[in-house]
């Protein structure tokens, strides 16, 4: 009597990813592991700030003005209740960092998503269509790149504030996200130029020529055949551009045309602390600046690792 054999269970997605080439590259890279841990801690603290933060820094009912300008806990005059000290309104710096990082990450990620959608679409169109369409779109990219990215973002955000002076927070955030996405240095132009170069190579491949011969529509060829083969460089660029978008948002908020004052980001916290930097209250601006550096540095290091991991020449 033969005993029935049960088929081996197929490994899950996480197991396959962990044992893949990219997973092995990640496990053997201490820099990537540390950067991922730092990024995860910052993201976790930002997303779950309502539960993780020890205080509610932007709830006026819980603020105590008598606790203003308290130094960090380990410094002389510090209060054990406020680990990183307080600002001029008595708000807990540690809690404010968590809430501020949430706004910065939200704006940065949303800006990158919008930039990817615009840049990838125009890059595919320019590379696949060629001719006058390609020339027009690339000259448009050259014109936008001739202006400093922060100047373009500042102009769009300023015009948005002027056109909608009494706009709601949602409209302000939309204008801010669009201003970062449309900026030349860290916006859609980088994706358009990268995708256009990759599309020029892919459109002459045999599988694209075969799809054309069989009568497949050009839009379907771009979406189903060309796009999946050019996503590698886009993923690497998007990872790196998250840090650029966060820094751009912090710069705009520091200049006063960023997020609303009642929803401060890390840039707003740095701008507030800058007023008291030379009066000896260094912690109000140093800790938000350090948080911004940690997020940007960890994301950049992850982007560098991903670029090397997806490069077959370095395997």
UniProtKB/TrEMBL annotation:
Keywords: Cell membrane, Membrane, Transmembrane, Transmembrane helix, Transport. The keyword Cell membrane applies. Residues 101-303 form the ABC transmembrane type-1 domain. The chain crosses the membrane at residues 31-53, 103-128, 140-164, 170-189, 230-255, 282-306. GO terms for cellular component: plasma membrane. InterPro entries: BP-dependent_transpt_permease (IPR050366), MetI-like (IPR000515), MetI-like_sf (IPR035906). The keyword Transmembrane helix applies. Gene3D superfamilies: MetI-like. Its main location: membrane. It is found in: Cell membrane. It is a multi-pass membrane protein. One of its GO terms (biological process) is transmembrane transport. Belongs to the binding-protein-dependent transport system permease family. This is ABC transporter permease. It comes from Ramlibacter tataouinensis. The lineage of its organism: Bacteria, Pseudomonadati, Pseudomonadota, Betaproteobacteria, Burkholderiales.
